[in-house]
Amino acid sequence: MTEPNSNYNPPPASDPTEPVEVHRWGPAPTQPAMQAWSTRPPGAPPASVERRGWAPGAIVAVALVAGIVSGSLSAAAVSTLMRPPASVVTSQAPIGQNVSNVHIDESSAIISAVQGAMPAVVKIQSETGNGQATGTGLIFDANGWILTNRHVVAGAQQITVILADSRELDGRVYGIDTLTDLAIVKVDGSGLPTVKIGSSSDLEQGQLAIAIGNPLGEFENTVTTGVISGLGRQIVAGSQATSSSEQLNNLIQTDAAINPGNSGGPLLDSAGQVIGVNTAVSQDAQGIGFAIPIDVAKPIMQQALDGKPLSRPWIGIYYQPVTKQLAKERNLSVDSGVIVDAGGNQPAVFPNSPAADAGIRQGDVITEIDGTAITADSDLAELMLPHHPGDTIALTVLRNGSQQTVQVKLGTLPEQR
């Protein structure tokens, strides 16, 4: 088995006394985020996240590490799916026949979606200093490019990728994402099956969701179904073994059954297109799983194909979304956008950051980026996704009731894990 890529250097543990960028993806939650825990190898948590031990109500990132008590691995139930009522009521056939047709149509869609995606879903086994971790990945390019979760491969000394047709290939970590819990793995190969990449920008609550993965590291190529239960969720994901944790924002919530071992596997829509990457599951409830939206992954997927190191744009601020309530409390002239504010005594603008160089100040309200309004549906972090380090963006800023345009040259989001 080959050693991991010698050009890849795992990020150093972060100094808990140093400030970190709060926005992995999307705004900081306006209320305490749901607590979560993962089974990934040890790592220093972001300074903004409190270390906590294992507790009821936790959420676990869904890679499987050998040695975990099997009783802690239970997960979500499968939801019953139905079309909108109008499609049933308008039919002239007997009611029982209507219901049967609905389920036949749904079953056909699921079967077709799974048949298209399954050959490109892989099992990933990582040998670490703490034992073996098992997760899932998806092949997004026929030349051996695989998307998975960071916690599946972080700290791996050896990686084995097992294809759906049982072939085993040696893998190496190409890069770790600095924005969220994603990583790119490379295997040597050509003509490999690939998934269809969809979009997460227009998802709706209630639509069909299909998860494929390797739950418990034992039941390979398992398919579960459910719906999109929620969007824009914030959780704190960490390790029950090491008490390390991190905040993950703007996740897709689904009730498709997800278990340890599903990490890095695809969440599909009814057309068999990848809309998310499964990453965490509630340990204290059924039907509460989370996936990273695929649109968040697209920039690093393209960087890998272009042979570039994985990087994310960075402004260097803490901010809060402006709501009508916040605007009233602070007597703001607008009720949308974001306000540069860290809360407490911590500076909201990082020293020597792009924002500091551009003159952004604490208390500034940023309402637009390149002329596009910042809203609850189009957050600053989302609008930054298409940009690259080195790009210059124009921010519309309200300061003391006066509007101005500030040019900011984006930096590179530092490695913080």
Plain-language structure description:
With 417 residues, the protein is of the alpha+beta class. Helices cover 15% and strands 33% of the residues. The protein has helices at 85-89, 95-117, 150-153, 294-305, 324-330, 354-358, 380-384; strands at 34-35, 37-38, 59-61, 64-65, 121-128, 131-141, 145-148, 158-162, 168-176, 183-187, 196-197, 208-213, 222-238, 245-254, 266-268, 273-282, 289-293, 313-314, 319-321, 338-340, 365-369, 372-373, 392-399, 402-409, 411-412. A 6-stranded antiparallel barrel has the order 12-13-14-17-16-15. The protein has a 6-stranded antiparallel beta barrel with strand order 5-6-7-10-9-8. Strands 19, 20, 21, 22, 23 and 24 form a 6-stranded antiparallel beta sheet that branches. A hairpin with a 6-residue loop joins strand 9 (168-176) and strand 10 (183-187). It is globular, with a radius of gyration of 22 Å. Residues 1-57, 65-97 and 239-244 have low confidence and may be disordered.
